[in-house]
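cron nightly-structures :: item 1 of 1
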Amino acid sequence: MKTSGKETADQVQNIADSGVFSIRSENLPTWCPGCGYFGIHHGLNAAIQGLELPHHEVVVVSGIGCAGRYPFFSGTYGLHTVHGRALPVSTGVKLARPELTVFAVGGDGDGLGIGGGHLPHIARRDVDVNYLLFDNSIYGLTKGQPSPSSPLGFKSKMSPKGTQDAPLNASLMALSYGASFVARLFAGDPETISNTLMEGVRHKGFALFHIYSPCVTFDKTFKTWEHLKDWVHPLPANHDAHDLKKGMMLALDDPFAMGILYRRD
């Protein structure tokens, strides 16, 4: 359904009035038009606003990749670190300044590839860091190679015959490593991202937010907006988020069920 110019202007004004823009820096995001990261950006900004967190008490830590640019677009403190090292740097920040709210952000290549060895240890230590894993199943910044979460048979310039590597399941990995809060989310639903982030921040311990997002430039066949909108769906209404085994079964058997898979209070 098309909207009029006035309706669009009213929507923009409502967003501006919410104060969300106050969390942005003067640098506009440089992601490709239509990238799902814009929805994640809005969801995180809204969560910071909703929690009324002083901006100088928030730190966003990134590695390398499209998500690595995130700290430049945030009006909070930020650290742009090296490839795959957002989690250990976040751990250091939290240990040095435990009163700060720390967000780590990174893509599936950054977090499950070169940085994959850090996820088990921050999870088992239950460090109070909130990790937003932007999962588009592709290396976007380096022009479209398959990533650790690309499906079998995924074709790209680097895998013209289809990748032969089985994909990793970040949600299931985090649960098996002992993460105390694990949620799976969709970049096309920033409101749910915001609400879930607020719950995760209030939770004292390591929180993984596994966020599915399309790469509109290099992936035309798998995690597209059209596919994700058809595939994603809420967790069963009767799901008990305090039941680890049920959370693990859902992570394994229903990879497109969105919501809080597990929380240990």
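cron nightly-structures :: done
DSSP finds nine helices and ten strands in the chain.
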